[in-house]
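step: validate -> pass
step: tokenize input -> pass
step: predict -> running
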Amino acid sequence: SEEDEGNASSMDQVILAAGQHSKTGGIVVEGTSGSTGISLAVLAASRGHGCIVVLPDDQAVEKKLILQSLGAQVHIVPTASISNPNHYVNIARRVAKRARIDFGYRAVFMDQFENQANFQVHYETTGPEIWDSCPTLNAFVMSSGTGGTIAGVGKYLKEQNDNTQIVLVDPPGSSLYNKVKFGVAFAPQQAEQKLKRHRYDTIAEGIGLDRITHNFSLGEPFLDKAIRVPDQEAVSMAHWLLSVEGLFCGSSSAMNVVGAVETARSLPEGSVVVTVICDT
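step: predict -> pass
step: emit ->
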């Protein structure tokens, strides 16, 4: 179809631009809602590789601008379910394959949601870093994007002290809250009669899912509980962090802090709670 031809043409232009930018003949490709793409763009630039980021169209425009300023080629696509071939992750996989086969570049699809290296690096580095700093830790609290951080950190912390609580923070519309609490990955917003263009009824970007990724599944046995945070509480916390702490944070980080505060209030006085402020 003309639409498919247009998409292929746009994809080719992105591949060629990344190839011209590459000093090594290598291209890093990822489908991301922003944060991982920004990190990859920084690393690719420092190593002389080209970088292609496939970004869904419901993300903040600032992410696109940051990625472009770092030299990444940004390909924006309509939001779709992961079962749709045109979901941003599925398109990124095809871009990498096309860059290798049709253009001869050494292109690699990072596959952050399913690549176990995601989980492993947090198990080997982030978890030990937190434990070394807080050996009396009572709870680790954070949301899940790919699931790699909370899974890797959660497993490591549980191995050090099984009494340490690992708490998932989840935005409205995500199915992970019910998966942890009831064992079923479903949210009311995903009911067929209520399903809208956006599957998640939240302002939060980059967290919450309607599926169980491989990385999340690796940490699921170590999750003790889940907290659902309304958007307004995240917005209020973001304003508080900026005005009181001088921290300019996004919605996912604000939700993490809300979850940490709620967890702290449920624990005895003097307990130690750690969360992650994951903005650059």
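step: describe -> Strands lie at 26-31, 50-56, 73-77, 106-109, 139-143, 165-170, 225-228, 273-274.
step: cleanup -> pass
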